[in-house]
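Posting here for the record, re: adenosine-5'-diphosphate.
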Amino acid sequence: METKQFKAESKRLLDMMINSIYTHREIFLRELLSNASDAIDKIYYKALTDDSLTFDKDSYFIKVTADKENRILKIIDTGIGMTKEDLENNLGTIAKSGSLAFKSENELKDGHDIIGQFGVGFYSAFMVADEVTVISRAIGSDEAFKWESKGAEGYTIVPCEKDSIGSEIILKIKDNTEDESYDEYLEEYRLKGIIKKYSDFIRYPIKMDVTESKLKEGSEDEYEDVQEEQTINSMVPIWRKNKKDLTTEDYEQFYAEKHYGFDKPIKHIHISVDGAVRYNAILYIPEKIPFDYYSQEFEKGLELYSNGVLIMNKCADLLPDYFSFVKGMVDSEDLSLNISREMLQHDRQLKLIAKNINKKIKSELVNILKNEREKYEEFYQSFGRQLKYGVYSDYGMHKEELQDLLMFYSSKEKKLVTLDEYVARMPEEQKYIYYATGETTERIDKLPQTEMVADKGYEILYFTEEIDEFAIRMVMAYKEKEFKSVSSGDLGFDADVDNETESEEKENKDLFDYMKDILNGKVKDVRVSKRLKSHPVCLATDGAVSIEMEKILNAMPN
Ligand code: ADP
Ligand code: MG
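Prediction output follows.
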């Protein structure tokens, strides 16, 4: 039997490659810069085993130049370069990755930085260019070659001149059409922005000639435009540095640079894990609520990097909803990316990372609560509600994890206390954790229902937010102590019913019946109460639903 080769319609394939893989056009620059970085890395790795090569880090760089008038954008590197065959194989064959081959040939397994693997990124240049030229001279060769292509039509390779080792990728940026403008890819400001966004942590300098307005020499008020070569990327990612060498200011600066927020974070968490999945992360607990936090528009998520290259701006899967306030980034070399490198292929690694991160955030919050109470209370003012939603959501699945982080205003302490603190100082005979619901602490103070419990010397937690009681109903009991509303019929201590009450009940039967009648179905029963002190009457409930909850439930749309 003869096995036939698949035929591919390469024109269409290329067209698909160019137009359907990526969601954002701007990533073409990320792809070309990643290739340039890979090319330099290859010299670096070769030098490790080849004595005739030395790698002097300072002489390697990438340069981006834009010529607006002629609509030419160049990405120049001092990397390993390509021979004629390399050009043919790597740029002439779709889905052929010279970088992937390099990794296996050189048995680079872990900890390397080479980014390429799919052999398609290069073609993304055609999203913004109608013609791409590559001039390249390979290491150890004195010949240079020019590869040129207008996309689907194919390519040519001819010998040419080039003084130094490395490659120049020359893009003829598309003309604007009626609906699309491509001018931005020639704008210095925009290019700098794209480099910063995706390629800030490429290990080699990415340089640009930047125009800046400066004071004329000898003048005090006359300015002139000066061109100056600048390195745009920060190169060494802060998360790869040793924690010991970093100060709080360094982390705060990173927070500001990354626009995670305008506030100062109350805490940073720097994680470096070298286990089943390797990753680094820097997380922040913000101080202030983002203005849109409790709105539909708010998007949770952490930045996700693969080997220092940005893959996703907001990876939602890394954070549970109840920690959605956390900001920061994760970088891992162990992610299996999909072909556009915008998404993940398998989320197994991601799940592991997310689980791990979740634990760290929790334990950090516990730490702050224990050691920096004031800070925690500040944090809790902003995000406590989210934690309570967390307890309530998913049928209480996360309550064990979160209940220690909860705080409520206490009748005794007149400030926020934790459940643990409450239970620790409960008198021995006290059976329940008591709470009272109301709009404000002042209002709750005035409730007749609270008097009795307070009089017993028992502490009461004040629930002033709608979510409070729902969350606590999910928790059910803390350290085996159940929660009880001060407005429930049975408060759990003998005060309500005794002989005296019973006789009073009998004596006033007619009056009570009359009251019930007048209230016409609004109350189930009218009884004598011993819990009243300064108030003539109070409402109490029998069932599982408190008065406050009932109000909320009634207000909910069916
Ligand atoms: P990938 O980077 O995933 O391998 P690309 O389509 O981006 O795929 O690039 C294809 C191949 O072309 C690379 O693997 C590499 O061998 C080669 N290549 C691309 N750009 C350069 C460059 N600037 N210098 C040297 N080789 C390059
Ligand atoms: Mg690539």
